[in-house]
Amino acid sequence: MVDAARLEQDDLTTDDFEELEDSPYAEVQASVSNLDDPEMPVLTFRTWFIGLLFSIVISAFNCFFYLRYPAPLITPIITQVLSYPIGKLLSRILPYRTWRLPRWTRRLGLPESFSLNPSPFNIKEHAAIVIMANISTSPAFGLNYTLVAEKFYRQHQPFGLDILLILTTQMIGYGAAGLCRRFLVWPASMIWPQNLVFATLLNTLHAEADEDEKGPSRFRFFFYVFAGAFAWFWLPGFLFVALSAFSWVCWIAPNNVIVNQLFGVSSGLGMGLFTFDWSQIAFLGSPLVIPWWAEVNTFVAFAIAYWVISPIMYYKNVWNTAYLPMSTNMVFDRFGAPYNTSAVVDRVGMKLNETAYQEYSPLYLPITYATVYGISFMLATSIIVHTALYHGKEIFQRVRRARNEKDDVHMRLMRNYREVPDWWYLAFLVIAVALTIVTVACWDTYMPVWSVVVAILIGLIYLVPAGFIFAVTTYPVSINLIVELVAGYIIPGLPLANILFKLYAVQVLNLGLYFVQDLKLGHYMKIPPRATFSVQVVATFVTAFVQVGIKRWLVAVVPDLCASNQSAHLVCPYARSFFSASIVWGLIGPARQFDIGDYYNPILFWMLAGAILPVITWLLVRRYPNSWVRLISVPAALAGATFMPPATGINYSSSVLMCFIFQFVIRHRFFKWWSKYNFILSAGLDAGTVVCGIVIFLTLQLPKGGTISLNWWGNSVYTNTLDWQGVSYKMAPPEGFGRTSW
């Protein structure tokens, strides 16, 4: 059996694929069927009815609650569970009459005939529904631009701009995703662990019971775990919240500054090691799915950066960070208070008030925020260098349509279906880019056309390198900070343009990755590629119009939408973050912080370190190809370390502990149990926890303005600490600290 740790090393041989008629990876063997029934219907009436129903309802629900804080979100695992009984119900009640379809419809992946109820509800229909629903669960980041413009900059935005921002970012992402199939979907080594949970649950729900198997069936096991997770989450989710924010050392010494800074989970480094809340344990991704080698890479990088380097720099008061809280994603002024952006903004014309800025304060970053900037800069360069060294030959050969990796059984089975031509995806991409240029040029976006092209190119350049990391580790690559930095330099003083630049660069990458992930799910479930294309395109357009409709309806009927004291808590938390970032990186700009001789200029040199480290590991792998050095992946380690803040140490430490138990110990000692139950256990824990969280929110937090609560020690002990107050190690002097001129 081929070790999963070899995913990043590109040393698989043809013999690995010819060992058996299956994937050479144990994870895929345990989750994905190596059989296919080409006659199984896919694009049935049930598929479209349930898929469109979920696309409309879920995108509306998530868009509404995206603007609220606190709020739950419906996740893909929930849609997968809920769509199953609906599909079964329709297969019982729909009539069996059949109609023949025109011949030309076969080019779209449609069957020769049409029936409302052609067969029992099957796994391919279910998978197609899940793919449609996955698109609807994606956050409506594109709406942040118009929300900020309307609610914070008081500039009305037309419907056309709203809908084109959503559609163009999704269309560019989808077009690019399709063109990346040969790199990120077809190779067996691109296993996409997050899809294995979906595949396992789909196979579990549609599998026939095997009486010869010992122990409960996967189907029964899933619902046991689901019920247990649902029941348990009432404790950390409502009854005993301290089990979630498990900063037990701080409870013992609530007034000790250093203890709270090291062990706290709000403004501290979270050295308490564990939490009893599955949503906290799986904050970085389910540790039952993340490969062990990737988890180790991430935890080592995190521990070095945040448990060693950051505390040393903090207590030595590097960059005056000791006057600020240890860990937060806020920026501060020279008095140690959160930076008051309104104090330096000229509301007439929304320009920086230079006089007010000079009288007030420059920006100061907390130590973990400065560290995550450095890690993000390292990631931006390391992922490009790593891809060139480890995957450059493969990319070159695949561009030339050569093959250096033999097809696995799943790819061979998929060759029975007509592939989607590249020009379909290329047309999508070209049309979307053209519409983007029209959007920027025809509406007053304050953004030069050339700059939006640069933003799109940044997202496209990082798509394949980030896809290699996402496909084998489950860690998405964040380019938010580097994009804000670039935008602040090339289009300075334009806050709305800064948001739009960030929107296109980040969303092209993020949506491209999630579209590729769904393409791989369709690949695993043996859905004809043209059928996958059809459901993704339809869901993209439906979701876009629903999200824009919900947003514009709320703007029309809620006059104080996004106000901090909005009675229904529709405070637009993400739009507020975009607004603050537009002030910091658009108006004030990075040049005042990162130019040569400025305060944080040394952080830029982390880019150089990021470019050098993959070269060192690559040379070591070539020198010692069979040593543990081959398990090191610099971009994977850095990508996982960019979640903090808002993540804390307990998210990392509890995740690595659970991953060690399930992905190392149980996998190696109890492989049969692991292959049968591991991924379905992850699905049950995710589903039960999310459903319970939604129930708690709708029944106890939403009514009466969130005043329903249990006031006792278990729900207050973690808040009665210096950690929760966000104290600093040093008290800022009355005259302020840091530079005397800026």
Automatic annotation (TrEMBL):
UniProt-annotated location(s): Membrane
In terms of Pfam families, this protein maps to: OPT
* Key words, A-Z: Membrane, Peptide transport, Protein transport, Transmembrane, Transmembrane helix, Transport
Q: What GO MF annotations does this protein's record show?
A: oligopeptide transmembrane transporter activity
What is the superkingdom listed in this entry's lineage?
Answer: Eukaryota
Taking the first listed entry, what is the main subcellular location of this protein, grouped into a coarse class?
membrane
Q: How does it sit in the membrane?
A: Multi-pass membrane protein
Kindly give the InterPro entries that the UniProt entry links to this protein.
Oligpept_transpt, OPT
Among the GO biological process terms of this entry, one is: protein transport
Transmembrane residues, as ranges?
A: 48-67, 159-177, 222-246, 258-276, 288-309, 367-390, 423-443, 449-472, 479-497, 531-550, 603-621, 628-644, 650-666, 678-700
Looking at the UniProt record for this protein, which Gene Ontology cellular component terms does it annotate, in alphabetical order? Answer: membrane
What family, per the record?
A: Belongs to the oligopeptide OPT transporter family.
- PANTHER family hit by this protein: ISP4 LIKE PROTEIN
Designated name of the protein: OPT oligopeptide transporter
| Organism this protein belongs to | Rhodotorula toruloides (Yeast)
